[in-house]
Amino acid sequence: MADPVLERRRDSGEAGAPVVATSSQSPAKTSSRSLSTPSSGPSGDTSNAIASRTERRSQSFAELEANVDALHLRAQSLIDKINKKRNKDQTLMEDFKNSLTLKVEVLCQCLEGKMHQQFEQNNMHLQAKVQELTDVMQRINHLQEELRQVCNTLTTVYEDLGLQPEM
62-81 pLDDT, tens per residue? Predict the structure, then answer.
């Protein structure tokens, strides 16, 4: 025993996967399809069923369109959130870069100051060593002069004694 409602649904595409009607489908096609469907009631019931199906399809399309619009709005919202987060990340990176640059500049200035202090200490140490060297060279010159005088004195003594100096 076949159920006439199920047969109508099967013929109209309502049973199983939903069939999406396009706007190019004319009411004449719908009514011709429903006319070929065996009807259990008078022709007034058939037109009411067609009107009911058409109304349900219109509601389905309206719901589908509303769902698509909602999905579109949600996707746009997600894209906006992603863009905001990217902008926030970019700002964070720029702040980090500026902070790092500032810290590197401070570190470089500190290092440069320490280098100048070390240069000054080395210069003072070198000046002290150069001064010592200068003092030693002056003593050497002074001792050389004294040695010359001693040599000249010995030469004079040897000459006075009439001896030949051995040099």
Answer: 888 889 999 999 999 999 99
